[in-house]
């Protein structure tokens, strides 16, 4: 059994418990009464080609590192992220390994106006309805955890509910599956789901397999601004950061620093790409 299988077994048990508490019909009624989803795709594209956007994560603990930060007030942390210029906020709602909850999502929703990602291991359409009912604008679909039929069905439902999905990949084959699906946002997570180790060079080695068009998100492994710059200089438009922000004494300033270093690196990346195009002509 891999770590991912183990996490998903727990997610499935917790899902069944919630399904016994709240029926799908009830969730659908709640969805009908919440505000429409925010436009996460535009938020992640940012105001200019040269910007690098940050998805700032509310992450208390993780399977790889154990406890990271207590985060007694997720709403206050999210408020700092928004003030620092984050384009979206990721809230881990998995309880057993990440110590998150849907209550965290509710708290953050009431504190910020930027798009919210419900970061969880989506394994059933119920979780997509649930995400929307709790105010999420974005969900995560992990290609390694789903077959093509599930991916297609879940992405279609996500879009039907006005949300977007980050379709998360780790290998060229998973990128091909995400691209064939017509994913509008493709995440490349540099965390190996078998060993849980991060290797940031994995992002640049996968770049040549990424299609043109979708927003590209580099996920995991950021310790400081230099890592955001490295992802941006390989082509990332968005970087998702958890641990480095929840451990930072000034998360607002840290988000600003990450954006600045990303923008400088992306400007260089775009200039190089333009020069290469001109030489090719
Ligand atoms: O963080 C983990 O240990 C982990 C283990 C297994 C599956 C997923 C895991 N993390 C989820 C994430 O993708 C990260 O929370 C996110 O990309 C931020 O990563 P980081 O900045 O390295 O905290």
From TrEMBL:
Residues 252-281 are annotated as: Disordered. Residues 4-255 form the Indole-3-glycerol phosphate synthase domain. One of its GO terms (molecular function) is phosphoribosylanthranilate isomerase activity. Keywords: Amino-acid biosynthesis, Aromatic amino acid biosynthesis, Decarboxylase, Lyase, Tryptophan biosynthesis. Signal peptide: none annotated. It catalyses: 1-(2-carboxyphenylamino)-1-deoxy-D-ribulose 5-phosphate + H(+) = (1S,2R)-1-C-(indol-3-yl)glycerol 3-phosphate + CO2 + H2O. InterPro entries: Aldolase_TIM, Indole-3-glycerol_P_synth, Indole-3-glycerol_P_synth_dom, Indole-3-GlycerolPSynthase_CS, RibuloseP-bd_barrel. Its EC number is 4.1.1.48. This is Indole-3-glycerol phosphate synthase.
């Amino acid at each position: 059994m891999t770590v991912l299988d183990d996490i998903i077994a727990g997610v499935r048990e917790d899902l069944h418990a919630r399904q016994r508490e709240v029926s799908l019909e009830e969730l659908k009624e709640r969805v009908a009464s919440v505000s429409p989803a925010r436009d996460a795709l535009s938020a992640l594209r940012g105001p200019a080609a040269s910007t690098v956007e940050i998805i700032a994560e509310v992450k208390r603990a993780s399977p790889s590192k154990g406890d990271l930060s207590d985060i007694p007030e997720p709403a206050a942390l999210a408020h700092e992220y928004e003030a620092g210029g984050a384009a979206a906020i990721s809230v881990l709602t998995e309880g057993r390994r990440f110590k998150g909850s849907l209550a965290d999502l509710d708290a953050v929703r009431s504190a910020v106006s930027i798009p919210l990602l419900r970061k969880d291991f989506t394994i059933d359409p119920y979780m997509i309805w649930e995400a929307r009912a709790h105010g999420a604008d974005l969900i995560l679909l992990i290609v390694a955890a789903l077959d093509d039929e599930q991916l297609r069905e879940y992405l279609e439902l996500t879009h039907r509910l006005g949300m977007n999905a980050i379709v998360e990949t780790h290998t060229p084959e998973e990128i091909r599956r995400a691209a064939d699906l017509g994913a509008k946002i493709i995440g490349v997570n540099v965390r190996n789901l078998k060993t849980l180790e991060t290797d940031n060079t994995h992002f640049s080695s996968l770049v040549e397999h990424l299609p043109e068009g979708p927003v590209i998100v580099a996920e995991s492994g950021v310790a400081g601004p230099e890592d955001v710059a490295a992802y941006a200089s390989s082509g990332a438009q968005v970087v998702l950061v958890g641990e480095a922000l929840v451990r930072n004494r000034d998360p607002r300033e840290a988000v600003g620093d990450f954006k600045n270093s990303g923008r400088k690196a992306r400007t260089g990346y775009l200039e190089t790409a333009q020069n290469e195009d001109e030489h090719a002509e």
